[in-house]
Automatic annotation (TrEMBL):
One of the Pfam families matching this protein, by short name: FUR
Transmembrane segments: none
SUPFAM superfamilies in the cross-refs: Winged helix' DNA-binding domain
Protein name from the UniProt record: Ferric uptake regulation protein
Predominant location: cytoplasm
Record-level Gene Ontology MF annotations: DNA-binding transcription factor activity; transcription cis-regulatory region binding; zinc ion binding
Length: 143
């Protein structure tokens, strides 16, 4: 963790190391600040909510994490450096699924080329209802 922080130009502190370690070990890949705060405290790491906000802002500035805003407008964070991917988001339960599709990448590249652009980065979020929520919605409406 220390090397990653140093390579990113950040000062190495115990709290930054603990937070980065947590992010690399947690199963869920899209976390709110509150998720991170609760997860750290559940592991016995005492860190204030304001400290988590401050460290995550430094991590974002250093390029260690990516901050994303989805439909809920609550910022979610994921580690940077993951392969390019898109997001499917359920409007009812908030389920978030990452997926990669080479055809989407090809279409984006072709569109950019056709219009004389190059792509530095992009964001594609697709909103709908997961099958569980869709089934519940349909059963409530009597379909």
């Amino acid at each position: 963790m220390q090397a990653v922080l140093k390579d990113s130009g950040l000062k190495v502190t115990t709290q930054r190391c603990k937070l980065l370690k947590f992010l690399t070990q947690v199963d869920k890949q899209h976390l709110t600040i509150e998720n991170i705060y609760q997860g750290l405290n559940a592991q016995g790491e005492t860190m204030g909510l304001n400290t988590v906000y401050r460290i995550m802002a430094h991590f974002e500035q250093a390029g260690l994490v990516v901050r994303r805003l989805f439909e809920s407008e609550t910022a979610m964070y994921e580690l940077n450096g993951k392969p390019r991917h898109e997001h499917l988001i359920c409007l009812t339960c908030g389920k978030l699924v990452e997926f990669a599709d080479p055809l989407i990448d090809l279409r984006l590249w072709l569109a950019a080329e056709r219009h004389g652009m190059s792509i530095d980065h992009h964001s594609l979020n697709i909103y709908g209802h997961c099958f569980d929520c869709k089934q519940k919605l349909e059963s409530k409406s009597g379909r």
